[in-house]
Amino acid sequence: MTFATMLRDRESLVGTWVALNDPAVAEISASLEFDAVVIDGEHSVNSIETITEMARAVDAADAGGDSDPGTIVRLSTNDATEIKRVLDAGVDGVMAPMIDDPQDAQAFVEATRYPHEGVRGVGYGRATEYGEAFPEYVDRANDEIVTIAQIETEAGLENVEEIAAVDGLDGLFVGPADLSAALGIFGETESDEFLAAVDRTLEAGHAVDKPVSILALDGDEIERWVDHGFDIVFAGVDIDYVKMGGRRAKAAFEDAAGTRDE
Questions:
Q1: Distances (CA, A) of 65 to 1, 2, 62, 165
Q2: 43, 116, 206, 228: which one is catalytic?
Q3: pLDDT digit of tens for each residue in the chain (262 aa)?
Q4: Parallel, antiparallel, or unpaired: how do β-strands 36-40 and 232-237 relate?
């Protein structure tokens, strides 16, 4: 079963988030039986070349589960040219930041679709096996590409019901850092105001039977957002995994050897 099918069926899914620009990190992450790997193209140094290599690494990984993880790229902006280039790299879907209104969401969806449903240009690339998969890929891509809109601004929250209802949009993502900052309560993700925004987004997505996702950075957050009703939780970021592993190893040494001040 594909990631797109599981997402659209609103199955409970777990993903991971990759920001470091080494394809080996993406490959390792994909091998851990996550349902999806998000490659961050916004808050990272990843270029289109790096994203392509990371997508190739995800596809090469032996995940060991019933299905391969979906590869989703978080775009740097809701731009048709960037979307075209990322999709030509052969990924399963894209996530667009700063979707403020249904017009933004409609433009986003149209940029992922070939004519006559959209404005995506047709060209060679990894997605079409460098032309070998024409016209099969073009025939099926409009139905298979996943589109997720980030709700992370006051305008996006105000218009979330209309955004969620846009035809062809597959789901919503709550950006906890940006949304809390936009509300003037940066990092206060347990506050009543932030939770009200979360509930409104969940209700908007679920009212039209579309999944809602969020990023969680530790075990308590993961449990909290699963219990809160999110369909997809992206459980951690590779940068944090490296830091946590390093701190754990250092602490183990200090426990074994005693503090160096003694």
A1: 11, 12, 8, 33
A2: 43
A3: 899 999 999 999 999 999 999 999 999 999 999 999 999 999 999 999 999 999 999 999 976 666 789 999 999 999 999 999 999 999 999 999 999 999 999 999 999 999 999 999 999 999 999 999 999 999 999 999 999 999 999 999 999 999 999 999 999 999 999 999 999 999 999 999 999 999 999 999 999 999 999 999 988 999 999 999 999 999 999 999 999 999 999 999 999 998 655 5
A4: unpaired
In this structure, what is the dihedral angle of CA atoms 65, 23, 19, 236, given to the nearest 10 degrees?
Answer: 30
Closest C-alpha to 18, from 219, 237, 176, 174:
237
- For residue 116, indicate whether it is catalytic: no
Task: Report whether 144 contacts 84 (CB < 8 A).
Answer: no
Q: How far is CA 78 from CA 8, 73, 135, 167, 203, in A?
A: 22, 12, 27, 17, 24
